[in-house]
Amino acid sequence: MQHLQGRRMPNVGLEATSGAPVNPARIQGPAVIFCYPFTGRPGHPNPPHWDDIRGAHGSTPQALAYSELYGEFRRLGVKLFGLSLLTSEWQQDFVARNGLSYRLLSDRGRLFQSRLGLPMFETGGGLYLQRITFIVHDGIISSVRFPVPEPERDAAEALAAMM
Questions:
Q1: Would you give the DSSP letter of residue 42?
Q2: What is the pLDDT of residue 111?
Q3: What angle (nearest 5°) sits at the alpha carbon of residue 144, between those of residues 2 and 82?
Q4: pLDDT over 90 at 110, yes or no
């Protein structure tokens, strides 16, 4: 995925948990966008065979780690976003339950994913993004973290790269 370095983020409007769309190509200044596959939700089962997929688990610890370090990202002037193929409504529930301080973006229509050719996986008839983290400056990808083998450490590693 290193071939994406230097490329502009896709010029697409993504529905955000704040209600206002976000266009990754138009984000000014430094930003981190971490892509994650799925977050669980009370009363809803995980996708079929989820426990059998290496690396599928970890989205909640990853998101919470970013939330814990949100103040440090803000201090550096870094905008922070999580992105998945989940619906904005599903993401809003996750944000509310976990008290996240940053926005999640829904790429339900897969415009972002397809324009960058992001890797995905399938289970139970559903498609999910593989975990990947972008460091972006003025809408240009300056660094790509892929794979992300320890999602709970991704936020600290992204923050260190911003310093």
A1: T
A2: 97
A3: 145
A4: yes
